[in-house]
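Weekly sync notes, structure subgroup
Attendees: PM, AL, DS (notes)

Item 1: joint prediction request from the bench team. They want all two components modeled as one assembly rather than separately. Inputs as received:
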Amino acid sequence: MKVDVVRNILEANDAVAAELNARFSSLGILALNLMSSPGSGKTTVLERTLTDLKQEFSIAVIEGDCQTENDARRVAATGARAVQINTKGGCHLDSAMVRDACDELGLDGTDILVVENVGNLVCPAEFHVGEDYKVTILSVTEGDDKPEKYPFIFAESRVMILNKIDLLPYVNFNVDRACAFARAVNRDIEIFSVSATTGQGMEDWYAWLRRERAAKQQKK
Amino acid sequence: MHELSIAESLIKIISEEMHKHGLRKLLSVQIVYGQISAIVPEALETAFEILTHGTDLAGAQIGITVKPMVVRCQRCGREFSPSHDVRLAPCPDCGEDIGHSIISGRELYIDHIEAE
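Output from the run, pasted for the record:
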């Protein structure tokens, strides 16, 4: 007997993600899913953001990693609340993992929740984890055609942070080309060119965070 | 690597559907996935085999249909598939660079099952 199913394979993950998002929204929390390839400076961008905005916001972090708790330690050193999810080799976080991590973390008093996903431009894009927005970091030490090679993650993202721009004089990276490919599938993507090491450009990213956090607070 | 999670969700949905229709033995399942959702079919089949070993779902045929990536130019409406000689941008007709919408290529669903 043939049974027409036509069901989204990830429906269970999406359902939990929707519940989580409703919870974040009721608390006025801006929730971000931070993604990138390994080595793009994801944790460095986060560390700098946490340090610079410490007085302004209570930011909580869920750290996803295949192995080790190194990143959670780096994040905790800034004074932010952090919980580590160790995926033991798994390539992405899913919404159930994030739900458990939120229970461990406690969300009361949180202004912004950042879920730092496993470094990978493919799998994490498939799994919503309750975020308002996906933020993808690309660094200039990678290829400028990354958005063309991985269109899905850039199409899904609200923000692209182009990191390590202090290294532009030393690498063969065409900023216009990278931005053009990202915009090819996402005309509204916000692009911030930054160096998390020198701090260049970070203020524009912070302005976006302030604006989006205020919008969430108003809608509460 | 996310094929394992996908196989788990797949099995849950198939079991629900079989239960709903009073079916006991799965013969085949047809999956549709988009080119840019980046599933490796062999990995999905292996994960499915391992997870269903010794169950009513074991031995079922997995059919996988791949939907190519198709984008629509936001200016002229031309639909095209980026490939090795057609870029994602600009649009091959009007030259527009930005805002093409992805109209196919990100699917991931079970189309149907056959069971008895």
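Discussion: Chain A has a mean pLDDT of 94.
Action: AL to compare against the crosslinking data before next sync.
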